[in-house]
């Protein structure tokens, strides 16, 4: 075989390999982003409630820290109108996506005027034009649309305000007041923002 023939054969082989690699690349499906993610917001306290009453303060390795945590599926607007559109007013809404939105309390907390003991709960939202209601349910670990009104622990009233900017993604935050007042009890605000609307209520640790 001449040098010219060898060169042509090598060139053809390279082209065939490149073509096969291109075909393999084209046949592999590209990754896609999921329509919603999972988000956790929490407030951490410096100790734990003792069984007989009182508060044990120490390092996290000794006392465990205590937390107030909300875990929720985070949907995105994607050009859709939210409250009054995608989320009907006056109806119970799952407050998230996919699995139910959970509230876990290591300490008793007051949400608005509703006193909630330590434990695990599910949260739902009833939005209105002039406010809203946060439903605390004793049903847990269910799909977000599986709402059972017979399992309601109670409801907390929510404030509503229009926002100057639009939130593309549902955003729930637990904001503590910091620094805390001397001898004061931990407290803060629970905020639910999506689109151009925010619902909120105050929270406060229940302390003797």
Number of helices: 2
The beta-strand count equals 11
Mean pLDDT: 88
Give the oligomeric state of the chains in this entry, treating copies of one chain as homo and distinct chains as hetero: single chain
Radius of gyration: 26 Å
Shape descriptor reads globular
What is the percent of helical residues?
Answer: 10-25%
Specify the structural class. Answer: mainly beta
Order of neighbouring strands in the sheet with most strands:
1-4-5-8-9-10-11-6-7
Distance separating the two termini: 97 Å
List the uncertain runs.
Answer: 6-10, 12-16
How many discrete structural domains?
Answer: 2
Largest sheet: 9 strands, antiparallel
User: H/E series, N to C?
Assistant: HEEEHEEEEEEEE
Strand content: over 45%
What does this structure look like?
14% of the residues lie in helices and 47% in strands. It is built from two helices and eleven strands. It has 208 residues and is mainly beta. It has two domains: 1-31; 36-205, no CATH class. The protein has helices at 3-27, 60-63, and strands at residues 36-45, 47-49, 55-57, 66-75, 102-105, 109-111, 114-116, 119-128, 131-137, 152-176, 187-205. The protein has a nine-stranded antiparallel β-sheet, with no helix packed on it. It is globular, with a radius of gyration of 26 Å. The longest helix has 25 residues, at 3-27.
Characteristics:
single chain, two-stranded antiparallel sheet, nine-stranded antiparallel beta sheet, mainly beta, 47% strand, 2 domains, 208 residues
In short:
The protein has 2 helices and 11 strands.
């Amino acid at each position: 075989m001449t040098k010219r023939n060898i060169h042509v054969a090598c060139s053809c082989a390279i082209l065939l390999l490149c073509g096969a690699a291109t075909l393999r690349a084209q046949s592999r499906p590209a990754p896609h982003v999921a329509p919603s993610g999972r988000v956790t917001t929490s407030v951490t306290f410096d100790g734990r409630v003792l069984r007989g009453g009182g508060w044990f303060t120490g390092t996290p390795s000794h006392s465990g820290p205590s937390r107030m945590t909300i875990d929720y599926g985070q949907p995105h607007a994607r050009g859709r109108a939210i409250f009054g559109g995608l989320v009907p007013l006056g109806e119970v809404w799952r407050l998230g996506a996919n699995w139910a939105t959970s509230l876990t309390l290591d300490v008793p907390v007051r949400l608005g005027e509703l006193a909630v003991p330590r434990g695990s709960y599910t949260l739902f939202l009833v939005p209105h034009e002039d406010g809203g209601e946060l439903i605390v349910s004793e049903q847990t670990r269910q799909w977000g649309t599986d709402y059972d009104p017979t399992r309601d622990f109670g409801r907390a009233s929510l404030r509503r305000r229009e926002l100057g900017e639009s939130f593309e993604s549902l955003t729930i935050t637990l904001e503590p007041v910091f620094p805390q007042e001397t001898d004061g009890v931990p407290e803060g605000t629970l905020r639910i923002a999506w689109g151009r609307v925010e619902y909120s209520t105050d929270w406060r640790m229940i302390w003797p």
